[in-house]
Amino acid sequence: MCMISNEKAEGFLEVMKSRRSVRAYSGRMLDRDALMKLLDAAILAPTAMHEEPWAFSVIQDRDILKRISDLAKPIFFERLHRSGRAVDAGTDFEIFHGAGTLVVISSRHSGPFVDADCWLAAENLMLAACAWGIGSCVIGSSLAALEIPEVKSTIGIPPEYRPIAPIVLGYPEGETPATSRRPPHILSWI
Ligand SMILES: Cc1cc2nc3c(=O)[nH]c(=O)nc-3n(C[C@H](O)[C@H](O)[C@H](O)COP(=O)(O)O)c2cc1C
Question: What is the residue range of 56's domain?
């Protein structure tokens, strides 16, 4: 049972409303304590059959981030092109938006709910980040590069683990405007 005061509930909703996909970061690095708080929040997510299938890689090496970005861009744009989408991201576009920290949530488990568990952990992590003034953005476009065996090895993901949820983190530079949402599409209410 989740019992918190109305005031805290309002505060929690405020965090959800304030979360943005942040795409501009200051140079200030996240320290170990801040990151541990986020990982501790991530693992509070619900998990099917209490499997807790998630595992975390933290990458803060700028050279490695740049190398992954350089690898990811052509793969991602090729996929977009093949699916008929036009993208002009420019040549100096950096897939991680200049963030100093990438967290990759991976799993060695297989099963119908493993990805759901990892994405729920990702959302917990991003909401906790927002509550502490840390910006975040899911970088789905990096996933294909993160699956390359050499990349996995470079960032310490063992072969039997599958990267699922890549999230960048950092202190935001400037304001990120909110994006809009359509109202809930209610299919039935019986
Ligand atoms: C699975 C997934 C993959 C995403 N991949 C990217 C990405 O590769 N690059 C990026 O800048 N944003 C990415 N995003 C962020 C979305 O673009 C963003 O959530 C959406 O535009 C809504 O904006 P908001 O998060 O600020 O509300 C991704 C989001 C999700 C859920």
Answer: 21-170
Cα 142 to chain centroid, rounded: 11
Length of the chain: 190
The string of pLDDT tens digits covering residues 15-24 is 999 999 999 9
Q: Is 5 part of a structural domain of the chain?
A: no
- State if pTM tops 0.85: yes
Does residue 141 have its Cβ closer than 6 Å to ligand 1? yes
By the 8 A CB rule, do 172 and 97 touch?
no
Number of domain units in the chain? 1
* 1 belongs to a structural domain: no
Q: Is the CB of 23 under 6 A from ligand 1?
A: yes
Q: Is residue 147 part of a domain?
A: yes
Whole-angstrom CA distances from 152 to 42, 57, 68, 181 are 21, 10, 10, 35
* Cβ of 180 below 6 Å from ligand 1: no
We report the CATH number of the domain holding residue 50 as 3.40.109.10
Nearest residue CA, atom 6 of ligand 1?
139
In tens, the pLDDT along 130-162 reads: 999 999 999 999 999 999 999 999 999 999 999
Q: Is residue 50 part of a domain?
A: yes
